[in-house]
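Our preliminary data section would be incomplete without showing what the modeling component actually yields. Below, a chain of 221 amino acids is followed by its predicted structure, encoded as tokens that our downstream tools consume directly.
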Amino acid sequence: MTEALRRWRIIPVIIIEDAKNAVPLAGALLSGGLPIAEITLRTKGALDALRRIKDAQPEMFAGAGTVLNVAQAKQAKDAGAEFVISPGFNRAVVDYCLENDVPVYPGVATASEIEAVLEVGLNLMKLWPIETLGGVPYLQLLGGPFVGVEFNPSGGVTATNFTTYLNQKNVVAVGGNWMAPPDWISAGQFDRIREIVRQTVTRVAGVAQTKDSFLTARSAP
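Predicted structure:
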């Protein structure tokens, strides 16, 4: 799963009320060029939506977000989740996921929490809520003492600022719901979602090309 994050670099954060919208939403993400979705467990229909996506579109890297306890982690796994993301660091959730070979990305906000996650052997974690924490300058500060630690920042990441985050050397992927806001999903605006996803994927490719050009220039004699 981590390799998928390195390739696609975007995690659409999905809040879905009605599970009947799950499959057309997955279709919009896939046709837009982004086969990843974090279905947050904030609604009653979330687990059913996750299950429907995995049944209809098994090629989707679909996982569960806002996983707060082991019971939810088990339910997510049973629904087909290929990864688990939490807003904070719950050791019991992380242990369950590691024991059951489910990729897990716990949330952190402080140096102490980062150290606690490192203790269990994980070095890629969610950094949330990044804009409240200080945004890009905070990421850059963390890069000093935490060499080799990588983050998936979310919480305030938007269509306007996401490329700035992707340009940071300690960022693997960013999470956000600007591509598929809850009201667009509820209204069935899947063509609109598809187009925004397509635009986002194109911009991500531009970030990658810029980084490659910069690295080539630095290594030139």
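Confidence is low (pLDDT under 50) at residues 213-220. DSSP finds eleven helices and nine strands in the chain. Preliminary results of this kind motivate Aim 1 of the renewal.
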